[in-house]
Amino acid sequence: MVRFVSGARIGAALLMLAAVARLMWDQVEADTLVLWNFFGFFTIQTNLIGAFALIVVATRTGRARPAWLEYLRASAAVYLVIVVAVFWTLLAPTSDDLTRWTNLVVHGLSGVVLVVDWLIEGPRERLPLTRLWVVIAYPLGWAAVVLVRGATDGWVPYPFLEPAHGYASIAMVVGGICVAGLVLGAALYLTPRTRPVTVDDARVAVESR
Question: Domain boundaries in the chain?
């Protein structure tokens, strides 16, 4: 059981990294790759964060996990659910690659995996709501950088962040996303403590066959 859980986490992380790499390669082939812009997408950044979280937690399957890793797992899950929700509600109508495997991974599977991973093996200790701000600190920082870029070099990763729409409209969208993130974060923080998957579990599974 321990090896299966670790393997599943590593496999999901590698698939997410492969999807990001493929998206980058597509831009290389089209001669449109600008690294600063490519890695400016929240989708790309959060898929990398999610993959990193899965790989780190996979190395500690069955062992104690530090508090920072639990916050990272919860935050990554919130980020990727935001990515999934925003893409399929605001961006999908203008996309031509809805069924492409890279799109389904970075805008779908990644979010499902991080949430399911958390629900299967949640925090060792329930995370305090007084630190709920952790889950939106990174998205707010990202949004601030994007708004500065939009006002200076004119580049924004998503149409709903275009300065032409007015900053009031942008604030409403970003505010709504943050509220949704806080609600989801609270739900994850309040997840009951779970017993870690251990070597003993694997032994019992083998003996029961």
Answer: 2-207
Give the separation between CA 63 and CA 129, rounded to whole angstroms: 25
Task: Write down the pLDDT at residue 197.
Answer: 52
Nearest to 194 by CA among 141, 128, 137, 118: 118
pLDDT greater than 70 at residue 208: no
- pTM, two decimals, is 0.89
Instruction: For residue 120, give both structure tokens.
Output: 């299967």
DSSP H helices, 88-133, are 101-104, 110-120
Q: What angle do CA 170, 182, 144 make, to 5 degrees?
A: 35
Query: Residue 122's pLDDT is what?
Result: 82
> Which two three-digit tokens encode residue 21?
């790499």
Judge whether 43 and 79 are in contact, CB under 8 Å.
Answer: no
